[in-house]
Amino acid sequence: MMAFDVYVGPLARYYSGRWENVAQEWARSNGATYHAIKIGEPAARETNLDVLRPEIVEWRAQLTEALGSNISEPLDWDELSDDYATARPNWDGWGSLVLWAAYEDHRDLKPPPRFTELPGDPAYQRSAARDAETHYPHLIRDVEIWLPSRFDFTFKATAPVGDNVTYGSTFTLLLNLRTLNERTWNADRATIESWGETAPPRDAPLEEAAKYGFSDMLALAEIACTRRMPMKLDY
């Protein structure tokens, strides 16, 4: 199974590849070699930050114009910053978190004992459907990039590099995550942090895997909101 990471920081640094996921950081610190292979990535990728930064700023301005009065202020964050944060909730952790939220939406359905693929799951299909009512739209609706702006809707638009993706708000994602905790676990910060200390096995119960994914996603969403930076899935 491919790696699944989440990145918070300047998008030029992300798209240049000048950041390390947790496995790369571990490999560098321990004198090991890490090779990342990504499906569908262009053979030639721009890595010059001086080239990418103005392209990202122009893309951001065009996106701001397209969103118009749907957002209260222009999209803005520091593309010159060197700061970023990352975590690896893994596919099972991320997918289990999404399923946990979908089954909280639909308590009449019984969740599976372990993570199952999202597209065929009945609760996920209900919550992710167009115009469906859900407490967790910015978690469930296939968002790939969250922007540091306050809005309630999700939308599709061209990514800075690549195809169209679904966008959400870092602030609404954080609210969705806090709501999920309040409506299910009601766990304190120390408990939530403990959930993320050790990755559960592949066959872990759904709730255990969801807690692991939740710990990472909550921590990164808080960083994204505090630093006013975008947040992006990486796989």
Number of helices: 9
Multimeric status of the protein: single chain
Count of β-strands: 6
Mean pLDDT: 92
Portion in strands: 5-15%
| Cα end-to-end separation | 10 Å
Strand order of the largest sheet: 2-1-6-3-5-4
Going by helix content, strand content and strand pairing, the class is alpha+beta
Low-confidence stretches: none
Largest sheet: 6 strands, mixed
Percent in helix: 40-55%
Question: What's the gyration radius in Å?
Answer: 18 Å
Structural features, described:
The chain is of the alpha+beta class. It has helices at 11-16, 22-29, 49-67, 90-105, 122-128, 137-140, 170-183, 189-195, 206-227, and strands at residues 5-8, 85-87, 143-147, 155-158, 164-169, 231-234. Strand 4 and strand 5 form a beta hairpin. Helix 4 crosses helix 5 (122-128) and helix 8 crosses helix 9 (206-227). The protein is globular, with a radius of gyration of 18 Å. The mean pLDDT is 92.
